[in-house]
Write a structure and sequence with these properties.
single chain; mainly beta; 7-stranded antiparallel β-sheet
Length: 197
């Protein structure tokens, strides 16, 4: 098996507390609200939302936050393994916790599930509760077909201070936000998260 993991400094990546690298190579941090949902990418025929988890340690003015779940909406195709329109392939890319999801002609996502361990908690002073564990995604996207007008946390440079309210969605599963561009009927939907339901 060829080991493939997200390249956290590569184009279209979302890793750590989250460090984003946009399609233009611009690197920035985004501190989403704990429990908040934001579009990572929103174009007229594709939207990928992320659900953020996090904590705000005593004395800190903003949250540490991580992407815990992803939700994808695209076109009007149905989500099937191979419906003749789009083949969807999920491959294991390491012995544990890593997969590649390919939606034919649309995108490739390399994903790794990462546990925040006691050492990281101590070194970064996250102050995570001792009775809880935090697991998040490290993800890298490659898009094959996006419209010229793209919004979302990865899609455009984000403001340094403020403006994030136009990127907040009412839920992980919603295509709605002030800046969202997704227009298609969300009949093709997929949830990828770190917990079996």
């Amino acid at each position: 098996m060829a080991v493939r993991r997200p390249k956290c400094e590569g184009y279209g990546s979302v890793c750590y507390d989250p460090l984003f690298v946009g399609g233009d190579g611009v690197l920035f941090y985004f501190h989403g609200a704990n429990g908040g949902d934001f579009p990572l990418v929103s174009s007229s025929d594709l939207q990928i939302n992320g659900h953020f988890i996090g904590t705000r340690p005593t004395g800190r003015t903003c949250n540490f936050s991580w992407v815990q779940a992803l939700f994808m909406m695209y076109g009007e195709a149905e989500w099937r393994t191979n419906d003749g329109k789009r083949e969807v392939l999920v491959e294991r890319t390491d012995d544990t916790n890593s997969v590649r999801v390919t939606v034919g002609g649309l995108l490739v996502m390399d994903m790794k599930v990462t546990l925040i361990r006691a050492k990281e908690n101590r070194v970064h002073n996250y102050q995570l509760p001792s009775d809880d564990s935090f697991v998040h995604f490290e993800t890298q996207f490659r898009f094959f077909k996006l419209t010229d007008l793209v919004e979302g946390v990865i899609g455009v440079p984000m403001p340094m201070m403020g403006g994030e309210d136009k990127y907040h969605t009412p839920s992980l599963y919603s295509p709605l936000c002030g800046a969202c561009r997704f227009q298609s009927v969300p009949s093709a939907i997929s949830t990828v998260d770190g917990v079996d339901k």
